[in-house]
Fold FAD-dependent oxidoreductase domain-containing protein 2.
Amino acid sequence: LLLRLALGALCAASAAAFLYHDYCVLGAGPAGLQAAYFLQRAGRDYVVLERSHAPGSFFAIYPRHRKLISINKRHTGKSNSEFNLRHDWNSLLSHEPRLLFRRYSRHFFPHADAMVRYLEDFAALLGLRVRYDTAVVHVTLEKDPRAWHGHYFVLSDQNRRSYKCSCLLVATGTWVPNVVNFPGSEYVEGYETVSTNPEDFAGQTVLILGRGNSAFETAENILGVTNFIHMVSRSRVRLSWATHYVGDLRAINNGLLDTYQLKSLDGLLEGDLEDLAIVKDKKGKLHITLRFYLENSNTSAGIDGVTLPQDELDNFATRAPYDRVIRCLGWKFDFSIYNRSLRMMPGRGNKSKYPQIKPSYESRGTRGLFVLGTASHSIDFRKSAGGFIHGFRYTTRAVHRLLENRHHGVPWPSTVYPITQLTNSIIRRVNEASGLYQMFSVLADIVLLRENATEFEYLEEYPVGILAELETQTGRKAPAGLFVIIMEYGRNFSGDDKDVFYYNRAVGEAQHAWQSNFLHPVIYYYRHLPTEREVRLRPPDWPLPRPDAIHHIVEDFLTDWTAPNAHILPLRRFLENCLSTDLRNFFAESCFLFALTRQKLPPFCQQGYARMQGLAGSESLRRHAVKAGLLQDYAVTDFSGDKLPASLPESQGQLLRDHVIPLRPLHHLVHAKDE
């Protein structure tokens, strides 16, 4: 008995030692708070663990010079909130209109402190459950058949407190500085600690390692006070307006390109940083050499015993000594806290700074571990906006919908419409949807056709990388084919060396829509849901497998795809060809004529006129239609064929006008013009 009591007490103490939640969200940055919002709205059991005393701690330090490069366009000329999010790159998604970033800053490129205030208010006003000052130092697995995935995630913080959860959402971002080690790298200052006071660089010669926005941001800050600035990186400069990738160099920071090309002493160089070496002379000046020179020199004799490149090549580009060398190489994901049992592995090549994840944002090594926010950018690195707030706010919502279906049996949200509304539904979404616009080529709207193509089911912003798993991941069925609506740039319009300002760069005619260069809607039609093999073997640079039919809506200078002839008519005809049906809208008179002359009515007449639905007629509406040329101006007659007397009371005349049908031969019936 004593033994049983002791064991029971031990088990109770062990259970109490773990704070259990269904969901653990690691990090209270933008992605962590966005995930918490959706979990809270769904009534789920969750906790957010944040190492700092407040949310968004990254933005309390970075960018160092405090100007964000995410745009804050406060005015668009439209009141549609979904459309306006296309040009608001800082707001998170919520139901609260007070939590729009335009209320926190009036600047197009806001100050970073405004983002800190915004995230603090987002967490406080929505009452999100965040535990601050909780630094998770270790994450491991605990096998248990009762858990959702056969294991629990156990997280330990700096105070040895443990948390247990069934699903782990990692939203810590990438915050560990990228460091390149080479001889003399101890003389290099890091972006994270270098002075931001321009006067500290007055009259100095500076070398910057790196070529991203942090490197150019640093150069922009000191451009007017230095002797000259050199910048070296292994890759050439990538301009965001050429690559259409917002993570590449933005115009707000590119002053150094002006001074370089206009020969004002500053310059850019390409070279592998690992091949470099830095030697410091007696005056504290820093000399650039190459590693193999250093390996063959007598370093004990100081700089006098070191061979420098200019000793053999007297016009060597970096032969002038530098006062300071600054490292601006970006950040990478922190893998150190994850136990080997989680198999959190870095990506390959230029994605090595991110963990390996599936297109569903789930870890390739551990089921139930999802990566959100900037750290999930490997899915669309250098392609779309998934590494930035205006992109991952939508991918975070997509992950939440996947989890709702997997763990709680809540299917992906959808709306069922009659087939006659297909064209209108697509046109509405491509003109206002922000998720499709920002996460182009990554998120897509899905139209699932019902049997006999009389209805369709509309799903919004589904990850195209898991299209083959749609029925499993969403709880929806695709029995009769589907349309996929996605936004794309032209195939050959984006790239490091592309001239995106060439003459005749835009297409304006519908018949040439497939040659559109700028962002535009593309509709893929599949008779059957593509298989995983078809998705895997899709053509290079295609976001989707080869479809049974494809339609490009021609690009538009105003990104307003509502032109009747250029945009809507070609789309409707494409849909009609795929469905072998007529998607036009008709007046009642046309439907009446079709009922007398055809074996099968168009869907609009079947679902409207034949069911006695539609717009109720009136004399004012009839006159308007006649004036617009949409209806024949029939004389109102009685059943004998005589015209009605002019003195007929208005109420009786209106009754006859609404209900008397002129007795004419059938071949004289003239149907109304189709909408």
